[in-house]
Amino acid sequence: MNGLLSKLLCGALTVFCLSLKAQSINITGQVLDTTNAPLELANVIALKKRTKGIASYGITDNNGRFQLRLEKDSLYTLKASYLGFETYEEDFKAVANQEKILILQPSANELEGVELVEEFPVTVSGDTITYNADSFTTGKEKKLENVLEELPGFEVTDEGEVKVQGKKVEKVLVEGKEFFDGDTKMATKNIPANAVDKVQVLRDFNEITPLKGVSDSDALALNIKLKDGKKNLWFGDVSAGIGPDGRYLVHPNLFYYSPKTSFNFIGDANNIGEQAFTLQDYFRFNGGLASLGRRSGSTLRLSNDDIGLSLLQNNRAQNIETQLMALNFNHMPNKKWKFSGFGIFSDVDTDLASVSNRTYIREEGDNQETLNSNTLQTTTSTLLKLSSTYTPNTQWYLTYDGFVKGAQIQDRANLLSEFESFSNDIVSNNLRRPFSIEQNLNAFFAKDEKNVFSLESSYLYKQQRPDYDLTTTQQPFVGTIPLNSNGIFNLFQEQRIITNKIDAELNYYRVLNNTNHLNFKLGTSINGQRMRSSIAERLEDGSDIVLPVPQFGNQAQFDFWDVYLGLSYRAKLGKLTLSPGLNFHIYDTANTQFEETFELDKTLLLPQLRAKFEFNSSQSLRLDYGIQAEFADIRNLAQATLLSGYNSLIAGNPELRNAWYHNLSLNYFNFSMFNFTNINGGMSYQKRYQAITNTLRFVGLDRESTPINIDEPNETFSLFGNYERRFPYMKGRFEANVSYSKFNNAIDGQANFNRSFTQNYKLSLETRFKEAPNVEVGFEKIWNDYGTVNIDNRFVTDRPFANIEAYFVKSFALTVDYQYNAYRNRAGGVSSYYDFLNAALYFEKEDSPWEIKLSGLNLLNTASIRQDAFSENLISTYEYFVQPRYFMLSIKYSL
Fold first, then answer.
1. Is 876 within the bounds of a domain?
2. 787 vs 555: CA distance, rounded Å
3. Is residue 30 situated within a structural domain?
4. Sheet containing 99-103: which strands, arranged edge to edge?
5. How far is 423 from 63, CA to CA, in rounded Å?
6. Host domain of residue 77
7. Beta-carbon count within 10 A of 144 CB
8. Rounded Cα distance, 531 and 739, in Å
9. What is the DSSP letter of 101?
10. CATH classification of the domain holding 70
């Protein structure tokens, strides 16, 4: 490993040093108007005198200063442009210690200035920053994510999340139209790079015209502008591949855009672990529908559908087969109406295998278990959305959304548990069939510049049908569940939960002047939940014995009603914007179980504060604070015992009260186009009172838990930071994430304190050449420290990595990525060393629509990786088996 990394690093440095043979110098200067006032965010570009190609460019800072890196003694044409001014142009020779002062004259024709500025790599107009993709890319990029990674200040994660200057992008548009509801992953992983003309960053994004003057949002959106040759016709690409051992891949992307209508089709079928739509994506996808109550500081926490299911799906599982069909459309019959929607259909089969070393947090007795697991997870999911927007004029904005979400998710697991001197063979079948329909109807009206109204409403119908079938060779839950079998033990549990939820909120905005406005709100949330459950023992003759109720069967009804009044004030004081607010809530809840009703009536006053200080257009500090109230749903209130795992029982608590907590976050952003430095960081702190946590009781390996409101506060504190600096031929990046949490519960009747301290640091250095090979080398360090009063586990991972991208003989390209992992438990017992090497060779003639690719994954044939996890009662480290080495020959055709 050390030899390989040394060679890669030496190669990177050699290439970099050779590139510096041609001596380069910095040319600095300042852009001013005719009154000698500095012009911030003016564009400055140097063109090679002979070829007219872009040699360097820059954006002025808040003092109007810029810098360009040019070859010494070469001839250039210098241009500077700013909206509303004539373009400045000058021929000059690059010499050392040269300082340029550029005076721009007001433009007689502002529209003409807009057209001239389009040739610059970056243009700024109001809240829109436009990047000319061809100015940053080499033409070798495959998808949109590769284009974005070349733009200064952009970051694309492995999960497809996009950040610009450290801020998360909320939505992606293509030609102003939503692409699969703006989902960043669907866009970055599928839009062809050769179709991208410009990338627009839309700051303080709000597509609702009546609210633009009173919006408190600082959301970011991207708008992808297509090249002229990609409009009014079908484009995209189709890939197909085969490999030994039955490996296959089929992946079509088809796109059509016109001023009135657009279609996007994405298909996928493969068994190589490349999932276009994962189970995590299914749970993440909300169709763009946001909760109204959460904005007022209150929420009813509906239980997730993924409880108890494994989410370890990625291309390193033991085996994955996936199929996807997704269709998105937008249609504008006229300027007033807009229709859009999408359908996503996915089927994924995943084989998961692991060996876990588990440490249970308990007061007495042996606490070590070894668990061997082999799981087949099958997931079939459907998402459908239809939206319509009606804007008869600039005063009105009416919109409707209907979103359908359904899935069938099944885990079939064969487990072997070894605890003390006992072995337990377990067969677990966990089936979930979540289904929901959500509809939103919203109206926004600006009566005049001083008075703005909005009415937002939503209705949710949600059905949860989890079934659990458990078979063991050792009797489970001795002393708690009475069983009749003397051999194989088989329990079957079914649950049915129906949720109906109505939210409505009326807002009135009173604009006092250009820098101050008031917001009055009246809202309500009405929720009704019904739950029934039962547990039966299945005997060897096929008959069922239903366990007695109410101990093991639920028949519960929960009604929750929240009415709230809110008042907030927004004031802009120079560079500081303050938005304090108060929300007054009246709650009425009733929980009925077996003819016994538990009621809770209360009122809460929840303050909020948002503050933003803008040092300049590219540097800001933001503070968010609020007191939040959180209520548990029927699953935590229903008091009968439920199976939640092969050795876990849970019973609800009908007397639960709400938790409330302080939420504080502070975020700093600083991005300089002057020297292409991106700095962002922040902290968050949460302190929960009356937190809903569990009290646990262990009987051998089995544990029984009940949710309670705990008196001691639970706290979480986190820090993050990111520094990125771009140079002419290199990019450096440092990331840090630190999180500390402490939470309290009760185990075996004794108060218990748990802590988790995690740290993640990553440093990387990457070359950025247009033609020469590019190399990235880096190192990542991870500390996970978990512990209680009696137990302390410290897991450490060292992860050096290197990536190579090289082009040769005009038509060939080679990519290689390597990662080494050294995983250790400093408390002793576990250490593991493994690495991964992937490579791909591409062949594509210039201007040819055909591409041939030969790829190999896991070339070192690594068998498993290590991971660790921590919960309120369990610390575990597990060996997780992955796909073996395989090769794939694929062909791609670009339309």
1. no
2. 38
3. yes
4. 65-71, 24-32, 99-103
5. 72
6. 26-117
7. 28
8. 37
9. E
10. 2.60.40.1120
Cβ burial of 273 (10 Å; 0-12, 13-18, 19+) is: buried
The pLDDT value recorded for residue 5 is: 47
Give CA 626 to chain center in angstroms: 23
Distance between first and last Cα of the chain: 42
Instruction: Return d(Cα 329, Cα 603) in angstroms, integer.
Output: 45
H-state helical runs in 614-672: 634-637
> Closest Cα to residue 298, out of 607, 590, 591?
607
**Total domain count for the chain?**
1
DSSP annotation of 809 reads T
Distance CA(50)–CA(48), nearest Å, equals 6
- Whether 261 is covered by a domain: the verdict is no
Residue 466 to residues 347, 492, 549, 812: CA-CA distances in angstroms? 19, 11, 19, 52
Query: Mean pLDDT by 10-residue block, N- to C-terminus, for the chain (895 residues)?
Result: 49 48 77 91 86 82 88 90 87 88 81 48 84 86 91 86 88 91 88 92 86 79 90 90 94 92 94 82 66 78 67 67 94 94 93 90 77 93 94 94 94 93 93 94 93 94 95 92 88 96 95 93 96 94 90 95 96 94 97 92 95 89 95 94 94 94 95 86 96 90 92 95 88 96 88 92 92 91 88 91 91 94 81 93 91 95 89 85 93 93
Residue 54 lies in a domain: yes
Owner of token pair 């996503």? 344
Q: Are 299 and 630 in contact (CB under 8 A)?
A: yes
Q: How many Cβ atoms from other residues are within 10 Å of residue 631's Cβ?
A: 23
Q: Alpha helix locations (H) across 117-272?
A: 144-150, 184-188
Please state, in angstroms and rounded to a whole number, the distance separating the CA atoms of residues 624 and 617: 20
Residue 165: C-alpha distances to residues 168, 186, 672, 764 (Å) = 9, 21, 9, 18
Q: In the block, which residue shows the tokens 């300082």?
A: 99
Task: State residue 123's pLDDT score.
Answer: 83
Question: Mind spelling out the 3-state secondary structure of 290-317?
Answer: CCCHHHHCEEEECCCCCCCCCCCCCCCC
Residue from 267, 248, 382 nearest 321 by CA: 248
Contact by Cβ (8 Å): 58, 66: yes
Cα distances from 715 to residues 390, 486, 624, 718, 733, in angstroms, run: 46, 47, 17, 10, 30
Contact 45, 79 (CB under 8 A): yes
Neighbours of 880 (CB within 10 A): 19
In the numeric block, the tokens 């897991």 are attached to: 795
Tell me which DSSP letter residue 713 carries. P
Structure tokens at 650: 């849970």
Distance CA 88, CA 76 (A): 14
- 348-370 CB burial, b ≥16 within 10 A, e <16: bbbebbbebbbbbbbeeeebebe
CB 795 within 8 A of CB 829: no
Nearest to 689 by CA among 658, 665, 666, 721: 658
Q: Distance (Å, rounded) from C-alpha 889 to C-alpha 731?
A: 33
- Kindly state the tokens that stand for 251: 């992946």
In whole angstroms, give the CA distance from residue 648 to residue 307.
Answer: 13
Q: Is the distance from CB of 373 to CB of 415 less than 8 angstroms?
A: yes
Distance, CA of 838 to CA of 829 (rounded, Å):
30
Q: Determine the Cα–Cα distance for residues 712 and 689; give it in Å rounded to an integer.
A: 7
CA R_g for the chain: 30
Lookup: tokens for 258: 């016109």
Interacting residues of 111 by C-beta distance below 8 A, sequence separation 6+: none
Element (H, E) at 14: helix 2-19
